[in-house]
Amino acid sequence: MAIEIQQADLLAALTATTRIVERKNTIPILSNVLISPDSAMVTFQATDLDLEARRPTPATGGLGMGAFTLSGPLLLDIIKKFPKDAMIAISEPDKKSGDVQIVSGRSKFKLQSLPPADFPQFPKGAFTHEFKIDAKALKKLFDSCAFCVSNEATRYYLNGIYLHVIEVGGDMKLRAVATNGHQLARADILAPEGAAGMPGIIVPSKTVGEVQKMSEAGGEVSIKLSKQKIMFESGWLVINSKLIDGTFPDYQRVIPTGNNKTIDLDCREFSKVVDRVATISDRGQRAKLTFSESELLIEIKDPNSGTAVETMAIVGGPEISIGFNSQYLLEIAARLSAGDIRFVLADAGSPTIIQNPADPDVLFVLMPMRI
After folding, report:
1. What is the DSSP letter of 258?
2. Could you give the CA distance from residue 4 to residue 259 in angstroms, rounded to a whole number?
3. Strand partners of residue 55
4. Of the chain's two ends, which shows fewer C-beta atoms within 10 Å, N or C?
């Protein structure tokens, strides 16, 4: 007995699920995908114990076949080799050897399966809040903040995006915040119906990455959450994730309110200038920005390679010099690629606000470097 699936459908299902699988795993079953035939569909499921992805795909045959598991990365590598219109036949495991045959045209592979009973199931439990959100809006939230997520194990509560509902100017906003201690990103959208009263949660960075990919297809994303877990569903793809069990710091205290020096620059030109000057140094070298009434001078010195300087014209800038990590500047500018980039400064030693003046819903805070 075997199931038959078109290569394009099988590839889409495997790609969406096996992304979360670690190729080198100390627990063999976690390298496998659970394959569950059911009528005219086959569901593929993968997990790393903290994150789970499920996606069904159309299939024929296989009625009465039980679930089985195969190496997700290996199966994906095999399926990629076939043309999009190829039909792939996957047999049920041999009762003695456990082998599963993958057949298409003249090609035949034999893979070892593992018992489906060993495949870990994601924790069950009720969700307290449920709402739907436009995929583009969700992607904007996560795209604006994901680059600021910390990877420090000691401050695990910064290893994700803090998602919560807050009132801003009389409107309820769904807000995403991330920080690594050197830079902070904050993004708002109008809170969807059903989000009010949701607990503040920290979505792990790996989950954020999967949801960003999910949102690329557009449409609508259904979100269910509680204090312990969250589920994203769009089209056929379902992502379940545990949440980070920790307390996100009071980010409001980090955002300065007394900065009184404002400078607007063309974002694309600024990004190109910083990128050119940063060529002289290793990643993350300090860039010294010297603002005057009509000019911005950007300078990077590297003791091992030399010095790079470039200027760009500005209008009505205050006179101030300040240093920033050049990589952080480029990361922020990349998310403000259209229109102007606005610097709101106090002095050379205080946090600086950076944003697009035309988009107040997205804000960045960057800590300066000593000059």
Report:
1. -
2. 63
3. 44
4. N
The amino acid sitting at 6 is: Q
| Dihedral of the alpha carbons of 355, 331, 139, 202, in degrees to the nearest 10 | -90
Provide the phi-psi class of 62: left if phi over 0, else alpha when psi is between -120 and 50, else beta: left
Query: What are the beta bridge partners of residue 343?
Result: 263, 354
Strands (E), 27-168: 32-38, 41-47, 51-58, 60-61, 68-71, 87-91, 99-104, 107-112, 129-134, 160-168
List pLDDT tens digits, range 21-72.
987 888 999 999 999 998 789 999 999 999 999 999 999 987 778 999 999 9
Q: Bridge-partner residues for 68, per DSSP?
A: 35
Contact 72, 35 (CB under 8 A): no
- C-beta separation of 311 from 298 below 8 A: yes
Give strand pairing partners of 20.
none
Closest CA to 310 of 332, 290, 336, 283: 290
pTM for this structure?
A: 0.94
Q: Identify the helix (H) or strand (E) that includes residue 171.
A: strand 171-179
Bridge partner residues of 229 (DSSP) = 242
For the beta carbon of residue 137, count every other beta carbon within 10 angstroms. 16
Does the structure show a pLDDT above 80 at 74? yes
Report the distance separating Cα 47 and Cα 45, nearest Å: 7
Instruction: Report whether 348 contacts 311 (CB < 8 A).
Output: no
Please say whether the beta carbons of 187 and 175 come within 8 A. Answer: yes
The rounded distance, in Å, linking the Cα atoms of 309 and 276 is 9
How far, in Å, CA of 265 to CA of 322, rounded? 16
Residue 303, amino acid: P
Rounded to the nearest 10°, the torsion over CA 159, 161, 162, 165 is -170
What is the spatial distance between Cα 149 and Cα 142, in angstroms, rounded to a whole number? 10
Distance between CA atoms of 37 and 57, rounded to whole angstroms? 10
